[in-house]
Fold this protein.
Amino acid sequence: MSPTGWIGKPVKRVEDARLLTGRGTYIDDHPPVANLHHAAIVRSPHAHARIAGYDLTAALAVDGVVGAVTGEDVLRHTKPFSVGVTAPVHYYCAATDKARFVGEPVAVLVAKTRYIAEDAAELVRVRYEPLPAVVDPERALEPDAPVLHDAVGTNLAGHRRLVYGDPDRAFGEADVVLKERFRFPKYGSTPIETYGVIAAWDSLEGVCTVWSNFMGPFIMHPLTARVLGLPENKLRFIVPPDIGGSFGIKTSIYPYIALIALAARRTGVPVKWIEDRREHLLASSSGTDRVAYRELAAKKDGTILGMRFRWLDNVGGYIRSPEPGCSFRPTGNFVGPYRFRNLEVDASVVMTNKSLTGPNRGYACGHLYFESEGMIDRLADKLGLDPAEVRRRNLIPADAFPYRTPTGGLYDSGDYQAAFEKALELAKYSELRREQARARAAGRYFGIGLALAVDPSVSNMGYVATALDPQFRAKPEYLPKSGAVDSATVKIDPLGRVTAILGTTPQGQGHQTIVSQIVADELGLTPEEITVVDEMDTFTRVWSISSGTYSSRFGSVGTSAVALAARKLKAKLVEYGAHLLGVPKEQLEFRDGAVRPTTGKGPSYSIKDLAGRAHWNTESLPEGMEPGLQATAVFGFTVSKAVDAEDRVNSSNTYGFIAEVMAVEVDPETAAITILRYVTVHDAGTIINPMIAEGQIYGGALHGLGGALYEELVYAEDGQLLTGTFMDYLVPTASEAPTIDIAHVVSPSPLTPLGSKGLGESSSMTVPAVIANAVSDALGPLGIRITELPMTPTRLYELIQKART
Amino acid sequence: MKPVKFDYHAPASLDEALALLRRYGGDAKILAGGQSLMPLLNFRLSRPAALVDLNRIPSLAYIEEHDGQVRFGAMTRQRMIEFSPLVARRLPLLREATKWVGHLPIRTRGTIGGSIAHADPSAEYPAVLTALDGEVVARGPKGERVVKAKDLFVTYLTTSLEPDEILVEVRLPATDAGAGFALEEFARRHGDFAIVAIAALVVPDGARCRAARLATAGAGPVPVRLRAAEQILERDGLTDAAIDAAAGRAAELVSPDSDIHASADYRRHLTAVLTRRALRRALRVAHG
Amino acid sequence: MADAVTVRLTVNGVEREGRCEPRKLLVDFLREDLGLTGTHVGCEHGICGACTILIDGEAARSCIMLAVQADGAELLTIEGLMRDGKLHPLQEAFREHHGLQCGFCTPGMLMTALDLLRTNPSPTEAEIREGISAVLCRCTGYHGIVRAVEAAARKMR
């Protein structure tokens, strides 16, 4: 059945009316229960300290305070969270024995207002015994470094050496071997809405209800239930309709859900906690800072034979799930868009006295491509080839799809050559090179950067097990993990109105709009005729552990569930219509909002007509047909499989492609970088709403630019955070944001009913690479190559000074 | 991030305000535009027993010209300065500097007196006050006194004003018609405090330079008047060579500190670069 | 010390009154005491601009102002931007040009843009960028916002 054309149109968003008029419903907006009290969290001022005791006398004496919990209560009444490694890291929702980073929760004060709670929190006396701190991941692995977790005995939370193909042979046969060390900074996408949790405990029913702007994955629900000692059906997670941005960061709110739930239980009142900006920067979440050692083996003609990755990912004071995704989330796409089959990955996950890490837009792919694309440029430089040409010689060919990567990824579709050539053409690459020659002749520092990336969407829950040894995974008691599932319900009410119900947790991606387009197309209606309810409530929605809105998921898996539910319902309508008409259903089809004869001649039944009959007169249903007009579909990718014995895993389910070209000029006096041209071409399969897709690309690109130039959580040697305010943690403004030339190539995914893939992380993963390559190219005449981000003016100035002396 | 409890007073007159300061004996804070103080209160880094809010004293907001000076009531909003025709005509350097102060919604509340009394060495207004050799009027229990710019700034966030004094007026010499001016600033993002900024004013006289005024923001604990660099220009004129020499001299006159946004070396280097750029642009402005 | 004070002010054309401690931030007073939750809190130190409202016709941050300071003032918040049941041209333009995603910065962004266009009805793109750089948005990369303000400026002139 052919769609009626809403898919692919820039349909204006349903969500906007409420959001433009101040009528959104965010976590901080409306008290969902009476008698709400407010929490303030006492946090460790020390990066590393033993906690010898607490004195709450003065704090509890403050008028309006109803109670408190400390690490002692946490130890007594909760369990530690499961972690993604076998090392015995005991991660509780607040510090118990020691504080391991500045800002770690130590106690919670509950009072009538936030103002009073903060007054009381200041009066809590915690007896700390400060310990030496370590913040650098390499330093943390030295034998004399302070150890954070005595039970682990080292700061290494996990280590894996993964070998694919025959890397030793590849390096042995290579004409050229290149080596480089890179540093990627710790930054977080810092949504403008911070974390918020409201917890209410019903002691009679034994049910804990938590409202929060948690974005999933809902694997964190059973993890949290276990921590609280609750059966899973006694813990209710509700997510409000509006979330003020997340970009991965709000995955990591779940320890606070446990902490505030505990506070509600201990104090006997519903408790609300809204994280403030200081808390957010100190202790919410960020990506890892990474030290990477890269090696590349190639032939003289530029053919890449193999690579070696050795990296240390710094996860901070504890390894918090879903880490060590920082190392393994891109397993299936480690090789990016290139053909080489030999790879060695040596991944160390290191704990230091910094704040904790987790998914951050582009989860680990910004790191990966910054390093890989930097290496490709070095190869071009070494061989005297154009960097575009080196890339061309190594791309996976268009006729190779579906393509199985050496690491287990299954690239579902693509035409990388077409997308790359389109980007070069759009950027007028040859002309840019001529312009560069002229600029250089005039003494100007003009550079062109390229970056290519495979953009993975919908992570397979199974990838995290790559962190575990194959021997461990081979034990009979080990339970393999895999999957990527979403569900949707479409129903037609007695008056013929269509409603779609989702349990996703959008943070601005416009799910209601997208779903209305899909359902309108399937049912031959207009988007305005579809009502979309998108509110997650674990008690009322169909969900699974992979539910949530993360990992560029919705455009791929969520939309598939919606399309399938609509198709199921449509099939039911046809079957019902056939029964009413007394004809075989093969003679009917659903077209333009009605069940019609395929011949186009004869009576037809509109949705409204069928809805009235079906709801008002169930006798009219064919025998055996379930009453009501609703269909729920649960879509799961069958290509999601558990990691195999050779560490191969299809870590995501659909794989898009990104090709970028950027031209910059560096002012050698001030070290300021000006972006002159920025082209990005995406292949995300079928684009459902190009306006929303463009918004995702723009937003993703600016996150990448933030990490490349402005944003960093900087720590002093003693573990104090130096960028704890928005005056020091520099979020780019409109004046720093580039204009982007965007184009698409469409290789529909064969795995999804609509051919769509995810696009949410998009250019966040390529901008660090493309701008680093562009700046390296600009400063090439000085022999400068960027190996470390962010490229702050001071850092660039020092490189320029050093090169000149 | 909620402030500690404090007493709040919004006196209707300056005398009342002074009496309140006296009463709290150094434990009260003066609240002007609040754009720097309120964040400090919200972070609980500032914990006064009382706030004395000057926003209800109408007589403290004005822009007037007297004897070649433009005088600003301390509570004159930066926004009012930005759109003031008198400032545009008589103090174009201040007008240009104003556009670098935060963002418009900050300038709506922020005041000239507050910005100067706060004495952030990276801020634009203290640099302009220093460049133009302006002065402020402080009123205390013993009456009024005039403090020259060079005697005002002590170190980071510290002026020579007494705790029981209130900065009531800012005075800047009006700019001659033939003068050129420029404020060159390098910041990491638009609207941020300067990593380094240079305020420059030149009065060309044929090939010669009748007067040059240069001051920094961001290049040390206080704004620095670059007198020795000015003298090069006043001696040698506004030639390219003299400008380069003045820029080089400027870098020698500052003692910047390192912080997370910029190293001391880089700030010193920027001082030279921005001095040269400011002077060149000021010269172009002078030549219309 | 610090007894509650009465704050009387006009919000979106309606006279309102509330009692609060002098230390209460204006944005908290709007949201908690007056139930106007359209104005958002993003940083509480005057950087992100999410809490921007018009105070006596001029954009200002409501997180770095005390409620008591607004006594007697006339405020415009996002809830008052619609007139006669119709979206303001700025609101229309934000919808048309995808000037919002999560919507959290949007109220502050709209109030800032309104002030910008009142003081500069025909801004250049650079001036628009400079103007809205007062508000941080993490979703849009600002592109849709810039286009929306350009479009609204044309409509409002």
Notes: Chain B has two domains: 1-175, 180-286. The first strand of chain B starts at residue 7 and ends at 9. Chain B touches chain A through 24 residues (CB under 8 Å).
